[in-house]
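1st attempt posting a full record on here, be nice pls
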Amino acid sequence: MVQWKLYLSLFNQEHLQAGDIKSPACFCIYISMQDRNAAAALGEAAKREQMEVMGENDYLINSGDASILIEGTVTELGCTAIWKIISTEDASVLITASGIGENINICLITDDIALASKAHSRHMCTVLVTCSDNYRRNKEEHIADAELSSVDSVSLSFLRMTTAHASGEPFILSQRNDFIIRESVEEDRTELQKICDESSEGNLINEMTSSVSRFEDVTTKAYDFYGFGMWTIVHRPSSEVIGWFGFYPENGQVWISYYLDRKFRGRGMAIRLAQVLLEYAWYEMGLTEVFAAIYEENRASVRLAEKMGFVIREDKKRPLLIMRKSLEDDYL
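the predicted structure (as tokens):
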């Protein structure tokens, strides 16, 4: 995966407050910490995201599955992330700045309870660090969109997901030139039912979308409880819902499931979609293995699983094949 790292002093805080950067692809992460040890740990977390948290007026822009921000323009490939350390005073100015947050995705990470409460009341996505020595509050008081008991668990994906949920929008897992992978919404249920055929995968999708409650079990409830679930595939040029890919837990293991509209098969899209999910499983979910249950008669799905590196683990349950993939083989 190509990584661009560009040091820019081009955009200072005044530029951001003035709304010069207005692309929804630009994601700004502000860190305002009183506990220096926790702040240092957040810096290490940023480095794991192949970024570096910079000081006053300097930014490090990272683009993996992301955009490049150069001279005030955004080339949209995904999401550009800007990390910035700011003081409590500057954070207060940021929160009250007119118009800020309307065109830019912003997330504030802080251990300052008063600051978190102020930001949350102004509908700015707020992550409260509770492992800080500064943390003292009534735990029943809701003053943040998420809480971190350990800054080691912070990731760009987690922050983007938290920000999306705070604004009532589905989290976009990935977006490429021809497709988008995002969290499912209620309107997708009927669209998914329309594209399903009578294959074993089609019947599974029909079962999962058979009622609102069943649909929520593998989408919104799963996102909240597990941090993953089934995701909707959107054809980017036409905005059509064309498939459903994702993970579900069963018997202490995580299983992959996928379905793509027949009109979009045979283009290599299914394998690219699956590879994005497997990368997410390794880097964001921390999985070392993934399982798949596929009917033997469905040769297309079996071949796709084999291309992804799945091997038959058990065929005693025929016609259902139990397949396993070790993610360590690809990513370790």
